[in-house]
Task: inverse folding
């Protein structure tokens, strides 16, 4: 079991650092420890773009204030990158390249020595093209260096009283699109509206998968069990999604599993190779 002391040592290897900060539990733990170890020489930075879900920036600001780290926002324009808009299996590479380009410029201008991410050991076993972008920008991963799994991150987040300790994962809105479906601002906005509508019904862990005219709602285990107790609850969810512009909607029979697109990708190696060769 990795310890807080090991993570503090990993963070302290740089004299100052910019933390790529989404407000999720991983980056929040890195930011909290950076604040403890580096003090004013730590800066948490949140990227704002059409792919950021409503409420996520407010959440990040609240976490930054709670852990005592300086917080800034920057605008990113991943939609200007053709590789991102095309939405191949390497979409995250183009997104993270945009992010780290911007963070590197900020760090150089403001005199910060390192860029930190919130990647943990469990991420290394999944399809994470964003890690390639990180390597190209010399981004360090303190959680990986300290041997932290996701379970370690959650445990230390509680130890440090990080507000996002139990926050469900919230990847960017583009992750709701099947690979090969172009990423467009109007589509991202529609997904955002649909997820806000379902969340307003009291559900916490969810995704609305954009399947053309159909919105497929996936709920976490507890939320799905609650929704399935009554037909009226299912109807309310599906009506909420149709109300924001989907012609059809459906509550998925199985519960939400993060990384579902990656599991699909592994069954389509030819598609991956085609996109990466362009």
Result:
């Amino acid at each position: 079991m990795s310890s807080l002391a090991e993570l503090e040592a990993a963070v302290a290897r740089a004299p100052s650092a910019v933390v790529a900060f989404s407000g999720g539990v991983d980056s929040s733990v890195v930011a909290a420890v950076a604040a403890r170890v580096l003090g004013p020489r730590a800066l948490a930075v949140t990227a704002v773009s059409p792919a950021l879900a409503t409420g996520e920036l407010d959440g990040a600001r609240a976490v930054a204030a709670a852990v005592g780290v300086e917080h800034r926002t920057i605008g990113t324009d991943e939609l200007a990158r053709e590789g991102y808009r095309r939405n191949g299996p390497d979409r995250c590479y183009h997104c993270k390249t945009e992010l780290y380009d911007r963070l590197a410029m900020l760090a150089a201008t403001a005199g910060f020595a390192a860029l930190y991410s919130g990647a943990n050991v469990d991420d290394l076993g999944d399809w994470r093209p964003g890690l390639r972008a990180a390597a190209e920008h010399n981004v360090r991963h303190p959680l990986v260096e300290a041997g932290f799994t996701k379970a370690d991150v959650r445990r230390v987040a509680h130890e440090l009283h990080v507000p996002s300790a139990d926050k469900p994962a919230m990847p960017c809105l583009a992750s709701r699109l099947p690979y090969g479906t172009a990423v467009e601002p109007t589509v991202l906005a529609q997904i955002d509206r649909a997820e806000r509508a379902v969340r307003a019904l009291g559900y916490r862990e969810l995704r609305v998968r954009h399947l053309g005219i159909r919105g497929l709602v996936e709920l976490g285990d507890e939320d799905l069990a609650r929704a399935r107790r009554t037909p009226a609850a299912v109807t309310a969810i599906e009506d909420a999604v149709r109300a924001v512009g989907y012609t059809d909607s459906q509550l998925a029979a199985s519960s939400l599993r993060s990384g579902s697109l990656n599991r699909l990708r592994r069954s389509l190696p030819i598609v991956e190779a085609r996109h990466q060769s362009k």
